[in-house]
Specification:
Blueprint: H1 2-22, H2 27-44, H3 56-64, H4 71-84, H5 87-99, H6 105-118, H7 124-141, H8 146-157, H9 167-176, H10 180-208, H11 232-257, H12 263-287, H13 295-319, H14 325-342, H15 348-381, H16 384-393, H17 398-413, H18 419-425, H19 427-436, H20 441-452, H21 463-471, E1 477-478, E2 485-486, H22 491-514, H23 517-520, H24 544-565, H25 569-577
Antiparallel strand pairs: 1-2
Length: about 575
């Protein structure tokens, strides 16, 4: 029995953790208890030295002194302030009116606002609950299929996990030892593509099942002009003007004067300029009473510009390297407070609620991370990482076989574990193997983040489904506008509505594996150093002492060149992105 324990302590430790988690024990305490328990067993079996556990205080202090994790409370606080100050309600009402005349317009509005909330809140619960409270009753009022409505709301809310400033990307970067800014840049395109795929599914549904997503009736379109028109024409004109100014700015300022500026900076600065021009035009129209813009155009500008400006303030400064993610989060939290103050919705009660929830979530994250450090100390001490490495590197198919097996594993574990648990328990075991196989860890982290997004949508334990269930009507009620009796939304309808969007997320995982540039194309890489053409010149001394110095210099030069030649291309590419 002792020999069996000694030879299999690593897999037994991992299996024990899975069993304890399935029994329902809190994750942080399960990790810590299993780590300490097997630490004692390892000491008794002679596999570990008692001094190993003396490293625990240093590892826990490493968690407490990690500056990267400061971004978690900042972005959480920013999202809660924005969500509870009524920004989501204003956005959904305005964008719903904008897309109202189109079949499936409310679903498109939910997807658009879901992506916008994801880029400002970064919290799935806030997005799903907000859209469930605001959009679901309207969609039910006007005859939307309950499965489609539920699926769109839940899936759009989970965009907060992949579109920066996502909390899971911060945790993923910390666990992989990579830059949060690079993780944000790599995840931006996949997040936008997911939102586009959701909209494409709605479009296909409206073609095949038009009755499932009708357009808003005329009486429901309240942002109309006095003559009954929608007022979209002036909005199109304003959009054309701002686009023309942005193109002119791009060509004149960058192509002619600063042609070497990076694409990221061009996009961020040009878009910011276009947003500023649109806001100035709308303000001039309102203050000077020029009547150049319709009610719809004016409402869209004043509702969209503040969150868009906040997005470009936070993400733009991070992508440009002006601010770290922690500093960007601090600016975002300050900007959210100013927006709530400008809307006259900032109160002591709102501030207290946001701070309480932020403190709870941040404490939750830190405690799980401390438990994970305790577990990993013992797991690495019994060579558990070697067991995992041998297990995964022996898979057939090399990189592709590893990626397929890992993604299937993450997909199945997501039925039972949420993304925090997956990020703290599974990712640290997979990262060394991925790096040894030559896989870029930024790309790998974004791939896993997209896969983990399904953990919010998996029946029967998906948290996004639970959030929606908590706000969806579970019994019939009288609609306050039409006076008609509205049937409830069943749990089965919520679950079936999530299935197509889980399939879309799985397709997105396959696309990232098939086309890696979806992620890596968003990363700016520096030119690699040509180690064959490095010349180091040193002063020549004709004295005997000078000869000895030249020998030492030649040896140092050769050692430097050998070290640089021994650097792997993947490692060099990764370092160049830091």
């Amino acid at each position: 029995m002792t020999a069996f324990l000694i030879n299999n302590i690593a897999p037994l430790m991992f299996l024990t953790l899975v069993i304890v988690l399935l029994m329902g024990y809190p994750v942080a305490f399960a990790l810590g208890a299993v780590g300490l328990g097997f630490g004692v067993i390892g000491i008794e079996l002679g596999l570990l030295q008692p001094t190993l556990l003396q490293a625990l205080p240093e590892r826990i202090w490493g968690v407490m002194s990690n500056d990267t994790l400061l971004a978690v409370p900042f972005f959480t606080f920013m999202g809660l302030i924005l969500e509870r100050s009524g920004m989501a309600e204003d956005l959904l009402d305005t964008i719903g009116q904008l897309f109202g005349p189109v079949r499936g317009g409310l679903a498109y509005a939910v997807i658009f606002v879901g992506a916008l909330l994801a880029a400002t809140t970064g919290v799935v619960a806030a997005s799903v609950i907000s859209m469930g409270l605001i959009s679901l009753p309207i969609m039910m009022r006007y005859g939307y299929d309950r499965r489609l409505a539920s699926g769109v709301i839940a899936a759009s809310g989970t965009l907060a996990q992949i579109i920066p400033p996502s909390l899971v990307l911060i945790i993923m970067a910390d666990q992989l030892g990579r830059s949060v800014g690079d993780m944000y840049a790599g995840a931006f395109v996949p997040g936008i593509m997911l939102a586009a795929f959701y909209a494409g599914f709605v479009l296909i549904t409206t073609v095949l099942r038009p009755a499932w997503a009708p357009a808003l009736p005329l009486e429901a379109r309240t942002l109309r002009e006095a003559d009954g028109t929608s007022g979209n024409r002036s909005l199109l004109v304003l959009t054309a003007i701002t686009v023309a100014i942005a193109v002119a700015f791009w060509v004149i300022y960058y192509d002619q004067n600063n042609p070497t500026v990076t694409t990221d900076e061009r996009i961020i600065v040009t878009t910011s300029a276009a947003i500023g021009v649109a806001f100035v035009i709308a303000m001039a129209n309102k203050l000077l009473k020029l009547n150049l813009l319709s009610r719809m155009a004016e409402r869209v500008i004043f509702v969209l510009i503040p969150p868009l400006a906040l997005i470009f303030l936070v993400l733009g400064t991070i992508f440009l390297g002006v601010a770290t993610p922690t500093e960007g989060g601090a600016m975002g939290a300050t900007g959210a407070l100013l927006m709530a103050l400008a809307r006259r919705r900032l109160s002591f009660t709102l501030l207290k609620q946001a701070m309480n929830v932020t403190a709870k979530l941040s404490t939750f994250v830190v405690f799980i991370l401390i438990g994970a450090r305790v577990f990993s100390l013992t797991f690495y001490g019994v060579n558990g990482h070697v067991w995992v490495e041998h297990l995964l590197t022996s898979l057939p198919g090399g990189q592709l076989g590893f990626l397929i097996v890992v993604n299937i594993l993450i997909f199945l574990l997501a039925f039972f574990l949420d993304f925090f648990e997956l990020a703290f328990i599974v990712v640290p075991l997979l990262a060394p193997v991925a790096e040894k196989l030559g896989i870029d860890l930024i790309w790998f982290g974004v791939l896993l983040a997209v896969n983990m997004q399904t953990s919010f949508m998996h029946p029967p334990f998906g948290f996004a489904l639970f959030y929606l269930r908590s706000v969806a009507p579970n019994k019939a009620y009288l609609d306050r506008v039409t006076g008609r009796s509205i049937a409830p939304v069943t749990t089965g309808q919520i679950y079936w509505g999530a299935v197509p969007f889980v399939v879309i997320q799985v397709i997105m995982v396959g696309l990232i594996i098939a086309f890696p540039n979806i992620v890596s194309g968003g990363l700016q890489t520096k030119a690699k150093i040509d180690t064959q053409n490095i010349h180091i010149q040193v002063p020549v001394d004709n004295s005997t002492a000078g000869s000895a110095v030249r020998v030492e210099q030649d040896e140092a030069t050769k050692a430097l060149e050998d070290a640089m030649k021994g650097t792997s291309p993947d490692a060099g590419a990764t370092d160049s992105k830091k």
